[in-house]
TrEMBL record, chain A:
This is Putative sugar ABC transporter permease. It holds the Pfam family BPD_transp_1. The chain crosses the membrane at residues 36-63, 93-119, 126-150, 170-189, 235-256, 282-304. GO terms for cellular component: plasma membrane. The keyword Transit peptide does not apply. It comes from Actinacidiphila reveromycinica. Belongs to the binding-protein-dependent transport system permease family.
TrEMBL record, chain B:
The keyword Signal applies. Residues 1-27 form the signal peptide. It comes from the Bacteria. The keyword Signal applies. It comes from Actinacidiphila reveromycinica. Gene3D superfamilies: Periplasmic binding protein-like II. This is Putative sugar-binding lipoprotein. Keywords: Lipoprotein, Signal.
Amino acid sequence: MTTTSTAPPPAARGGRAGRPLRRPARRSGAAVTRPGFGWAVPATLFFALFAVLPLVLVAVLSFTDWDGLGAPRFAGLANWRALLHDPTMIRSLWLSVLITVLGVAVQTPLSILLGVWAAGRQRNRAVLSAVFFVPLLLSATAVSVLWRAVLDPNFGVPAQARWLFGDGNLLGMRSGAIGVLVFVGAWQYTPFHTLIYQGAARAIPEVLYQAAQIDGAGTVRQFFHITLPQLRNTMITSMILMVVGGLTTFDTVLILTQGGPGTDTTISAYYMYERAFKSFDFGGGSAIALVLVLVATVISLVVVRVSGYDRMRGSTEGL
Amino acid sequence: MMKRARFSRVAAGGVVLALGLSLAACGGTGSGAGSGRIHVLVYGDATNKVEKQIVATFNRTSKVKAVLDTIPGADYQQKLQTIITTKQAPDVFYNWGAGSIEPFVKAGLLMPLDGFIAKDPGLKSNFLPSVFNTAVIDGKPYGVPMRGTQPVLLFDNKKVLADAGLSEPRTWADLLADVKALKAAGKTPIALGGGDQWPTQMWFEYVYDRVAGPGLFEKALGGDTGVWASADSRRALALLKQLVDAGAFGSSYDSVKFTDGGSPALLATGKAAFELMGSWEYSTEQDADPGFTTSGLGYGPFPTVPDGKGDPHDVVGNTNNFYSVLKKTRYPDAVAQFLKLQYSDAFVKAHLAIGNLPTTTNTPKFLDTAANPAYLKYQFDLVRQAPSFQLSWDQAYPPSATTAIHTAVQEFFDGKTDADGFIKAMQSLPAS
């Protein structure tokens, strides 16, 4: 029953040899041909037009000096050089990573527990699951406004619970503001990840648990030795989504803190907006945007690499 | 401090959509040859009622028709800057004068109004000079006042002051004494929406003006950044620090906003005694709590500072909003006729009816017809008698400096930077 955590034989790892059995196309024989490149044309065009082209334009803009009026002036490496010596830029990257890591650390355990619990079959669970799901249906803007009101130091919850919140200056302090951003993010997105885990937990073959029960394993052991390993790929999917979401956090910052107090919550995405659209420095803003793209790509690659997601290793070998 | 800041950032989410709509709405300006239309772009809010009325009046007699386009949402300036070089650019547009139009003037997009004024001197002489001058750049007028003036006043809750046995402070010492007494009574002495940052900036504007007079800021704006390190500047910062350290604003002001009604509620509910705010505080409170506004809302000038060089009658705030004209407008004569309406009797009456205070010389004639004549009269006299009306710092500087000013102001109040840090930040502001 521990086959799940056993690595498949070397021949099956990474290579195509281990996978054909799960490919419907092969299973049904030679009658079905592989889809041609034609199928990918619309998506490729769309991607090129709305992702690659803007990216190239942003890259070009990052070498110019442009305030949105008149023509951009070529500025060489000026924006990039300035960025290297810009303490706010370095801090904003660090902040983005911090908020992302905290987000993953808070949301992952919560959503696994909730998801596994919600995978049960009792009627009340279905109702409660639906209730849990509500935050996801609200826009990030509405959620931010809501929490801003709830956390108001004079008229919100902190005013009623001074023993816990002190003067309630949550958004006026670095640690408090970061904490609120992480909390609000978790409040909104945990339901989504719970949903993913719920689906994955439901897909775990019942026989595994039946066998474990025969072997005398209790609930906790079952959770750690069956459920958790079986959720491995789901966990990676969910964490990649969290990382991408965390690095591009923007609306909550815009509404809850505006990057403040001072520049304490000026994460890279907000800093980019501030430079480009508030200070009308589109060259500088573009350079920040590219740095963000670069960092996000590197982090995503690392996550994929380290987790073995790229190899798409199955978790049900031997069943 | 900007008028646009009265509206919550929530609206920012609608930016893209709104822009798209307004682009669609004014698609004919440049391309439709012989369309016979001028497009007037204004900030979308309750005041549009008046602008619609003025446009309708204009269209009754004019062959060239005016079309009113509104951009809702808090990020007017950003949307304006996006379209102003395109075919969708308006002929006439709303702005805050000074720094808010300086980049456009530098880019050669705006029409100096001397020509219009030469033909109709009333386009200048019918407005209060201190207000009109806000839209004068490099000696040339680029705008005509088109809404109400918004000086910053020290508002108070009369009942809270009376309960504590205090009166409105006239001097800095009064203010400090009031702060002490109010703290002892368990109140937050002064409500401050520090989360928005611009309300914090208002305190700097007044203290700097009272200590050093308007010259210091004018010099700084003109490029003489050395004045930020002057003895006057350091004294102003010391006074501000003294007020913060005395606990005048409590300790959670950066978690409070004006734009979501947080700080006005502190004043209205009597949790705080004062709030320094633009004259729109009156209508804000009236929306939230009409009873409090008529009977409990007090207002007065900013206190004097001992040995201050600034005239105690100086005011700061937004002098007014302005209509500026694009150089490439195809109907300059129609535009000139349209601008004339901004000092008409009908214009003044329409604004007074919704609580705005126009800055035309004929305004006093109609003050008695307003809903709140005492308040408007007080404001009008304040503005008329003011030797200097300092435009909000974040509007006097070009938009590229706004974030840096706000950050510097907030960090100084929070004690994250000292006087040296603040001075350095202000010295490194982009001049244009």
